[in-house]
């Protein structure tokens, strides 16, 4: 989690900082083989050099970016969890609970789907 320390300390709202740290810590513990890194000023996790999932903070939500394939695959589940999404990200409002079960499925999907991927992003 040291790799995210500066990012987390830059989040002014303590509740947003705590929630973000909770999610990043959960990913780190649940998926110890993923590499935590900062890129484009955002925390993300990679596997064998390929992007798996990224996070960003805004005023109203924590954004989760699993690439378009992850969002398309889980679109119905994302909506059922009470989140809205775009083609590129899922928005978890600060006052909504994090559906860690769904997050786990999204990450597992990307790990498996990108097993043979040799590029950072899907082509």
Automatic annotation (TrEMBL):
Q: Could you name the domain of life of the organism this protein comes from?
A: Bacteria
- One Pfam annotation, family name? DUF1801
Where's the YdhG-like domain?
Answer: 16-111
The protein's name:
Intracellular iron chaperone frataxin
**Naturally occurring in which organism (per UniProt):** Paenibacillus segetis
